Amino acid sequence: MGFTVTGQSGVQVAIGVSSPNRPQYMAIGSGSGAVLFADVALAYETSRRAPTSTSIALTNQITYVGDWNSVEMSGTNLKEFAMFTESIDDTGSCWNREGFTGVDFDGTNELQVQVNYEVY
After folding, report:
1. What is the total count of domains within the chain?
2. What domain range is 85 assigned to?
3. Residues 6 or more apart from 120 whose CB is under 8 A from it?
4. Which of 12, 30, 73, 98 is 20 to 30 A distant from 107 in Cα terms?
5. What is the pLDDT of residues 32-57, one digit of tens each?
6. Environment class of residue 92 by beta-carbon count within 10 Å: exposed (0-12), middle (13-18) or buried (19+)?
7. This prediction's pTM
8. Would you tell me how many other CB atoms lie within 10 Å of the CB of residue 59?
9. What's the CA gap between 29 and 48, in Å, rounded?
């Protein structure tokens, strides 16, 4: 069975606009550890908010962008980010988790996270 362009577009619209279980919040954190398929939360979340923007540029792609200013990031050792369906720490609402080597913020750096979901 092939997945049609119409099917891709329908899934993309449901994820990006009309589904109550779509990713609606971005979170950043300073926790470490391996990223696992079974992850349901960040290891140590420091901030969560609605994306600054959501765009549907292609029929099969959605892009979420989140911004944090230099004051918010000051003193943070960023090691992870994720997308969630809930505005509060809700186990099971995590769509994805990305982990990486820590990035230190000294009060002069801003952060922008961009997450792309693409339906093939």
Report:
1. 1
2. 5-118
3. 3, 8, 60
4. 98
5. 888 887 888 899 999 999 999 988 77
6. exposed
7. 0.83
8. 13
9. 9
